[in-house]
Amino acid sequence: MEKDIILELEKNINKENIFQDEIMAKHTTFKIGGEADVFIRPSDVSELSHAIKICKKYKIPYYVIGNGSNILVKDNGFRGVIIQIYKNFNYVEIIDDTIVAGAGILLSKLSKKIADESLEGFEFASGIPGTLGGAIYMNAGAYGGDMSSVLVSVDVIDNKGNIITLTKDELKLGYRTSIIQETNYIILKAILKCKKGNKDDISSIINDLNNRRRTKQPLEFPSAGSTFKRPVGYYAGKLIMDSDLRGYSIGNAQVSEKHCGFIINKGDAKADDVIKLIHHVTNTVKDKYNVTLETEVRIIGE
Ligand SMILES: Cc1cc2nc3c(=O)[nH]c(=O)nc-3n(C[C@H](O)[C@H](O)[C@H](O)COP(=O)(O)OP(=O)(O)OC[C@H]3O[C@@H](n4cnc5c(N)ncnc54)[C@H](O)[C@@H]3O)c2cc1C
Fold first, then answer.
1. pTM over the 0.90 mark
2. Is residue 211 domain-resident?
3. Does the residue 209 lie in any domain?
C-alpha cells in the first residue's frame, strides 16, 4: 500500500497496531489465507474510526474480523485493510442480571464470567470459538440456544461513522443471520441479559456441552466449524455422509471423518483446495438429494 496512506493511518493509530503484508493464516482458525495488504488491530474506538475514515477517503476496501473462526481467506490474500476487533474491545462488566461486553471478547471467556456470576442462559456459547461481535453478526448458536436468546442491544458504528444503538428487534436475528450482514455496521459492544441460576448446574451444563463437542467435532484439526448452513428439514453433515463423502479430500482439505459437516485443514491446505472441496460437496449433494447446500463460512480475498 502507498506510503502516504500508511502515514495517514499512523497519524491517529499507534504504529504497533498497523501491520503490512500480514499473513491471514495467522488470524483464522482454518490456519489458511494469504497476505492482507494492511492489517490493523485498533486499540479503541478512536483508532477504529480513523482506520475507516482513511479507507473511505482513499476508497480502500476494508473487512472487519473477530477471531477469524468463520472465515476462509483466499490464497492470494486481501487487497485492502483487515481490521481485527479481537484482542482489544474485550472488557466485560456485570451488574445484577445485565452484562455489558466489548465486541472483541471471546465467547469462552465471556461465558465463564457470566457463569461465575451464577447467571444462566449463555452456556450454549461457551464452546464457540468466536468473539461476541462475530457471534452477533452470525447470530451464532448451538445446542438449542443462540445470541437472540440473550441479547438486549448492540452499539455499532454506522456507515456515516456515527455510533448508534440497535435493539434486539432491530438486529433482525434469524438462523445464522443478522441485519449487520446487510448494513456492514461494525459492532462495538453489546448488552445481554441472563437469569439468575445455580452455579453448579451452569458449570455442569458447560462441561457437558464441551464434552459433546470434543466427542463429535474434529477439534484436533484447524477448521471454521460447520462449513455449511443447515438446510431446512435436513442436516448438512448427514447429507454429506450419506453422499459417501466422509474423508473425501482435495489436497490437504478434507471432509472430516469425525463430523462430515466440517471441512478440516489436514496441514498446509490451500484455500483453493477448500473451495474446490466445497464445490464438490455441494454438487454431489445436489445431484443425489436435490438439496442446495449454502456455505456458513464466509469467503473473502482473492
Ligand atoms: C471448531 C469450531 C466450532 C464452531 N462451532 C460453532 C457453533 O456451535 N455455532 C456457531 O454458530 N458457530 C460455530 N462456529 C463458527 C464461528 O465460531 C462463529 O460463527 C463465530 O460467531 C464467529 O466469530 P468470530 O469472532 O470468529 O468472527 P469472524 O470469523 O472473524 O467473522 C465472521 C463474520 O462476522 C463479521 N464480524 C466479526 N466481528 C465483527 C464486528 N465486531 N462487527 C461487525 N462484523 C463483525 C466478519 O466480518 C465476518 O463476516 C465454530 C467454529 C469452529 C472453528
1. yes
2. no
3. no
